Amino acid sequence: MNTTTAPGKRAATREMILDRAYAMACNDGLEGLSIGTLAQAADMSKSGVFAHFGSREDLQLAVLELGAQRFMDNVLLPALKTPRGLPRLRAIVENWCDWAQRYERGCVLLSAVGEYDGRDGALHDAVVRQQSGWRGQLEKAIGQAVDEAHLGRGTDVSQLAFEIYAFMLVLHHDAGLFGFEEARRRTLSAVDRLFASYRT
Amino acid sequence: MNTTTAPGKRAATREMILDRAYAMACNDGLEGLSIGTLAQAADMSKSGVFAHFGSREDLQLAVLELGAQRFMDNVLLPALKTPRGLPRLRAIVENWCDWAQRYERGCVLLSAVGEYDGRDGALHDAVVRQQSGWRGQLEKAIGQAVDEAHLGRGTDVSQLAFEIYAFMLVLHHDAGLFGFEEARRRTLSAVDRLFASYRT
DNA sequence: GAAAAGAACGAACGGTCGTTCTATTTTCAG
DNA sequence: CTGAAAATAGAACGACCGTTCGTTCTTTTC
Predict the structure, then answer these.
(1) Which of A23, A69, A195, B190 has the most neighbouring CB atoms within 10 Å?
(2) Does the nearest atom of strand D lie within 7 Å of A55's Cβ?
(3) Which residues touch B7 (CB under 8 Å, ≥6 apart)?
(4) For A97-115, how does the pLDDT look when each residue is reduced to its tens digit (9 = 90+)?
């Protein structure tokens, strides 16, 4: 009857496996994912896990995609409820901070950049696609802030997206090394200075 | 006679191995280092390579230290020839950009942060020590710029170091994903805006 | 309730990993 | 030139890797 929601056993266990895999990849990166360890975490046999993905690479791709979807669901989507322009931009940054806190031990998407930016292959392509997609979303939100006259008319949208991204990168970086709270404080302070300097 | 410089065969081949290992770690990270592949690159046997370091971990530590030393030699040291204050700060940033360009495929020190910030162990400790040491150097150079009245008296030294570091992080990030030249342009532009906003 | 289809298992494969041990070669002082 | 010491080679180890395959258990369908 219901074609889209019909869970079926297969899809259900696949999601369960992916959930475990995502948790593992948060700590050890996508390269640290091993099917044996994952099977153990999922209370299944190696071959049982393997059968749900044709290869380790496809598993990694699925985990990466799950990460991207969760990032969007937690950072971008909730921010769409606040009015477009600077308020929404601030909401994105704050949600992003919460994301960084939740994944203080390591964000799958971010470690994937480090793992695959120098290589080539399907994972590299997926990372680039995902990163440039998110950067685009950020630029779109910035563009709206310009349209709403919350930011100066001459604002270089890509440049500002670049700079915001920089502060979120260093947030992840410093949170992992020196502790989250100070990093969060410095990040929000830096972003505030940034927005102020781009105001009309 | 000469106690400090006596090279000896041992030290020489050890350096040769480390040089190869460093090059490998630039592409694959410290976790990607395998003794077998390294031995192949060094035209030696696995056990021959292994004998120079008591364990893989000690090898990784040695490579990390070599990376830190080379970073200092290429980024900080040359900048000490320019007058302290803003000029030296700019020199550091420019040398850092060159560093990022040379290691566009991946910087050992940076990927080490991603690989070990969530774990614990000797490598984690070494990464933290090395990163906070470098941040301290950066803060020292900024403090001098304040003393020279190149930057405002009320400058938050740690905050500015945090922000500069952010732009160098995103430089590495974007250079690997989207190409170096645009990333360099945006980074220098961002740093200029930053310095201007901290002026007296 | 039997038959067909799907999902998970368990064993095994060839390979690579870090590490250990012994033998061989190379280095260097006397 | 000789003999001790250091450096390297080579083989082997147990463990884990991703993957394959045939079997077994479970679910669905008629």
Answers:
(1) B190
(2) yes
(3) none
(4) 999 999 999 999 999 999 9
Q: Answer yes or no: is B84 within a domain.
A: yes
Please answer yes or no on whether A178 and B117 come within 8 Å at the CB atom: no
Compute the distance between CA of residue B121 and CA of residue B30 in angstroms, rounded to an integer: 14
Residue A50 lies in a domain: no
Give yes or no for residue A8 having a pLDDT over 90: no
Q: Crossing angle for the helix pair B157-178 and B86-102, nearest 10 degrees?
A: 30
CA of B38 to C1' of C30 (A): 38
Range of the domain at B94: 57-198
Tell the residue number behind the tokens 């390591």, with chain if given.
A106
Is residue B14 in some structural domain? no
Q: In this model, does residue A3 exceed pLDDT 80? A: no
Rounded-to-integer distance, Cα A16 and Cα A187, Å = 35
Helical (H) or strand (E) element with A106: none
A13 touches strand D (CB under 7 A): no
Domain tally for chain A?
A: 1
Higher-confidence position of B72 and A7: B72
pLDDT of residue B13: 95
Determine the protein residue whose CA lies at the shortest distance from the C1' of C26. B9
Domain CATH for A84: 1.10.357.10
Provide the 10 A C-beta neighbour count for residue A51. Answer: 12
pTM (predicted TM-score): 0.94
Query: Is B43 contained in some domain?
Result: no
Helix ranges (DSSP H) in chain A: 8-28, 35-41, 46-50, 56-71, 77-79, 86-102, 108-116, 122-147, 157-178, 180-198
Q: How confident is the model at residue A10, as a pLDDT?
A: 84
Q: Is the CB of A101 under 7 A from strand D?
A: no
Interatomic separation, CA of residue B121 and C1' of nucleotide D5, rounded (Å):
35
How confident is the model over B25-72, as pLDDT tens digits?
A: 999 999 999 999 999 999 999 999 999 999 999 999 999 999 999 999
A192: tokens are: 């505030």
